[in-house]
Write a structure and sequence with these properties.
It contains 18 helices and 14 strands. It has helices at residues 2-12, 14-25, 61-77, 90-102, 117-127, 141-149, 163-171, 173-181, 191-199, 219-232, 247-255, 275-284, 313-319, 338-342, 357-365, 375-386, 389-405, 409-420, and strands spanning 53-57, 82-87, 107-111, 131-135, 154-159, 185-188, 205-207, 237-243, 264-269, 289-291, 304-306, 322-325, 347-349, 369-371. The radius of gyration is 22 Å and the shape is globular. The chain starts with a helix and ends in a 7-residue tail after the last helix.
């Protein structure tokens, strides 16, 4: 009954969904592309006996990049299968397109339909996957129910659930408990995640670790960042990575108090639709700005370099002496610090790291990261570290050690998947 009410409310909210798409399309016109896919209208009917298919849902950029090593492993272990990659955002779709180009013919791509009963039915009837994999916290009641009616096994992989999110799920436990209980397996990032998911109804939650530790930075990007660093010479570079609304102001406020001669701030907003907004913010403070999209490197007078490009974060980390991880100065939950560690970049994080709580705590504990609780502390700690080469070198080595010590989630996750869908090598 509760899912019927949920579905009815979703249908009634459809005009608001369209208004939200139009609102987002003001800055990202791509939101108005492939609209039929959002209701699982895919045109021609599939072949009567299509090749077997594994479906993996990665909502946006972070999840898509985290899924990359898992996708590689699945394509290796299931050579007769194709893999369908679904997303909810244009940036996630663009990130997934890079994987399609790497594996032509093996990967398909589409938007996941909205969680409406008829749309979910059309999606499964069209693609008919042998197995569905949902990344992190993407749990849609009608989608899960539609898969269950067709006996399509589902697994939640790289699963995480913060204490804050768990409280929200408990308010709707009658809606989400059946969905979690119907999953074949949950591959959780941490024991805390597994415990919370089990408490909400997951029958089999196994700790496999975080797939993001298995994502190796592209050597081409690392080399690009090192070339930038050579051009910049001895200039200290502070990277503010994946910043969210309101954080750029805090970083710019802290800049003057760092006391670092000739400091260059490399500023990379999390969302591309905010690039122009952040550029205007910097210019409004009369700071000399250079934009990566202009294909020009900073000159001696440049104070802020805006990283307004996609897919180059590893290069930015390689060029930086120290990185502040966005989303953590204000209560957004923090972005991924794992990529920075894999690139050997020392890290600062704020106090709001509940999206990556264990990774952040472990990074701080081993010396790969430092916490800053305020704009003033950011200025003081960043200034001290950027003026102390030996301290930065020690953090850099700790970051590499931290990254290597946490690898292996991909193989553990694939082992669980083989228990649901045996691969030819295990039959």
């Amino acid at each position: 009954m509760i899912r019927f009410i949920y579905s009815l409310l979703f249908y009634l909210a459809t005009p608001l969904v369209w208004l939200r798409l139009l609102w987002r399309a003001r800055k990202q016109p791509e939101y108005l592309q492939h609209l039929g896919e959002r209701y699982a209208f895919h045109g021609a009917r599939p072949a009567p006996t299509p090749p077997p298919l594994i479906w993996l849902h990665a909502v946006s950029v972070g999840e898509t990049r985290a899924a990359a090593p898992l996708i590689e492993a699945l394509l290796r272990d299931y050579p007769a299968h194709r893999l369908l990659l679904t997303h909810m955002t244009p940036t996630g779709r663009a990130s997934g397109r890079e994987l399609l180009q790497k594996h032509p013919g093996r990967l398909l791509q589409t938007y996941l339909p909205y969680d409406l009963p008829d749309a979910c039915a059309r999606f499964f009837d069209h693609f008919r996957p042998s197995l569905g994999l949902l990344m992190e916290t993407e749990l849609w009641p009608n989608l899960v129910a539609a898969a269950g009616r067709r006996n399509i096994p589902l697994a939640l992989v790289n699963a995480r659930l913060s204490a804050r999110s768990a409280r929200g799920y408990r308010r709707l436990v009658g809606l989400f408990r059946p969905a979690l209980a119907s999953l074949s397996v949950v591959a959780a990032q941490t024991s805390a995640d597994a415990e919370r998911l089990s408490g909400l109804g997951a029958r089999k939650a196994i700790v496999c670790g975080n797939l993001k530790f298995d994502v190796a930075p592209a050597e081409e990007l690392l080399q690009r960042g090192r070339r930038w660093k050579q051009v910049l010479g001895s200039r200290p570079v502070l990277l503010a990575a994946s910043t969210r609304e309101g954080e750029e102001e805090l970083v710019l406020d802290a800049l003057a108090g760092m006391g670092v001669a000739n400091l260059l701030l490399l500023l990379v907003p999390r969302h591309p639709q905010r690039f122009d907004e952040v550029a205007a913010l910097v210019r409004g403070r009369r700071l000399d700005l250079c934009r990566r999209s202009a294909e020009a490197l900073p000159v001696a007078a440049t104070q802020v370099w805006l990283g307004d490009s996609m897919g180059e974060m590893a290069a930015y980390y390689a060029a930086a002496d120290l990185a502040l991880i966005g989303g953590s100065l204000l209560p957004f939950g923090g972005q991924n610090l794992i990529e920075a560690a894999a690139c050997g970049c020392p890290v600062l994080v704020g106090t709001h790291t509940f999206n990556f709580a264990l990774a952040a705590d472990d990074a701080v504990a081993c010396g790969a990261a430092r916490r800053v609780a305020s704009r003033e502390e950011l200025a003081r700690v960043a200034g001290t570290l950027l003026n102390d080469g030996a301290a930065l070198d020690a953090m850099r080595q700790s970051a590499v050690t931290f990254s290597r010590a946490h690898r292996g989630a991909t193989e553990r996750t694939v082992a669980l998947i083989r228990g649901i869908l045996p691969s030819p090598s295990t039959i």
